Amino acid sequence: MRYLIIVLLVAGFSSPSWSQSTVKMKLKDNQTIQGTWMGMEDDHYLMQYENGSTLYVPTEMVLKLKLYRSYKDYPRYDNNRNALFFGWSGDLNTNIGQGNTGFAGAGINASVGYDWDHRYSLAFSLGYRNMNIGRPETFLPVTVTAKKYLTHGRYLLFGGVEAGYQWGLKNQWHTPASSGTWEPWGSQFRPAQSMHDKGGGPSVAPLLGVCKIGKYGFDQILTIGLHIQHFHSEKIRSEDARSEVDLLYQRWRVSYGMAF
Fold first, then answer.
1. pLDDT at position 39 over 70
2. 67, 164, 178, 260: which has the highest count of C-beta atoms within 10 A?
């Protein structure tokens, strides 16, 4: 180190043309030094310490040099600030205190929304969800999600709420009209069971999560929420007495997705 020339600069001095990458140098005398990369000048590597001092290192003294580019230097970093974004997400859910009335479920969503400078965001989503993998209870969810960001930087904590409507697609109470048996003695077709409509109902889910801002314009989002969904279905055969299926799903839901 006695051959190094150290020039002290005013703390905080910087040039916008210099990269903010971190550099790590291993010298020929086995010493390792690290700081902010500032470029080259007259066969010297320039590196800045946290206290604002600049170190000029002759190139012949350096055995190995490695640059760690700052994520802020990437041209598409934080591309979704104050902008329209698109996204997708997949989720897993499990029932809460409902015994054998339901099993784990899964879903997938596509969304479009707008982000206001990482202070608030609003997104509309369309997806597909199965609330009971063991005995399919599938829905087409259409939802709107509002979020409030709680932190700044690359990792953004947020809280929010998702609300919408879940249209039923397939469930154990809905029987296709073609199923059943033909009774020749009565010359009539008897359904296997009284057919209900596919049903549906509103849903709401308070959310907590974290968003990791991507270096290439693709943000990763991890969310946990309490999914509460009402389901209602009725018999639709005119000769049957009126009957209803009325359920309330209560599920912990974990989802992972990306916004771009």
1. yes
2. 164
